[in-house]
Write a structure and sequence with these properties.
This protein is an alpha+beta fold. It has 2 domains: about 170 residues, no CATH class; about 30 residues. It contains 7 helices and 8 strands; from the N terminus they run αββααααββββββαα. The strands form 2 sheets. Strands 2-3-6-7-8 form a 5-stranded antiparallel β-sheet. It has a 3-stranded antiparallel β-sheet with strand order 1-5-4. A hairpin with a 5-residue loop joins strand 7 and strand 8. The radius of gyration is 18 Å and the shape is globular.
């Protein structure tokens, strides 16, 4: 069983209709209080384990089917250490993903719309088996590199029923000392002063 975590974390904002897809997504605002509390609590525990580099805590909740992928996850957690150093856990988004209607592993997209339908976040997973998943995004608030973490959870029914860790990735939240808002603002300023190449670079950095 393989989950493409990097593709999962790459989400785009679009304005597309969501009807007609077998896989469904429930955004954080649409979760029941119990679902939200459970996933938020687990997200905070996993994020804290990354900040503390507590590999045993993460391996304890690893999905059994992902045992042969542990070294890759472990490496990603260790590489995240400088990104989250000095930060505190701050949850950003939680998504509940249902791919139970799939009949076989398949490249799958989840379309997660806001409550008013004005925006849709696309979450893509490669060769996803049928099942129920969750994506938790969190930040290392206050860290020098503003590390951003993403956890893929899998609802395990094979042993002790519950959420298990299926994937992890991390990336810096700042680039060249600035965050996305700074680059976006700078790009607009450069575009308005007719500096197209500078604007292109700033927009690309923001992206």
């Amino acid at each position: 069983m393989r989950l493409c975590c990097m593709a999962c974390i790459a989400a785009l904002l679009i304005t597309a209709p969501t009807a007609g897809f077998a896989a469904t997504c429930t955004s954080q605002a649409q979760l029941s209080p119990e679902q939200r509390a459970t996933l938020a609590s687990l997200g905070e525990q996993l994020s804290d384990a990354v900040l503390r580099q507590d590999l045993s805590a993460l391996q304890t909740v690893l999905l059994p089917a992902m045992a042969d992928q542990w070294e890759g996850i472990r490496g990603a957690v260790e590489q995240a250490a400088p990104l989250v150093k000095g930060g505190k856990v701050q949850l950003r988004n939680v998504y509940l993903l249902d791919a139970g209607t799939l009949t076989a592993p398949a490249d799958t997209q989840f379309f997660c719309s806001t409550s008013n339908g004005s925006q849709t976040v696309i979450i893509s997973m490669h060769s996803l088996p049928p099942g129920k998943y969750a994506l938790i995004l969190s930040d290392a608030a206050g860290a020098a590199l503003a590390g951003q973490m993403g956890f893929v959870l899998v609802w395990d029914t094979g042993g002790v029923t519950g959420w298990k860790l299926g994937g992890f990735s991390a990336r810096p939240g700042v680039f060249g000392g600035h965050d996305v808002v700074w680059y976006w603002t700078r790009a607009r300023e450069l575009a308005q002063t007719n500096v197209p190449w500078g604007a292109w670079y700033a927009y690309d950095a923001a992206r």
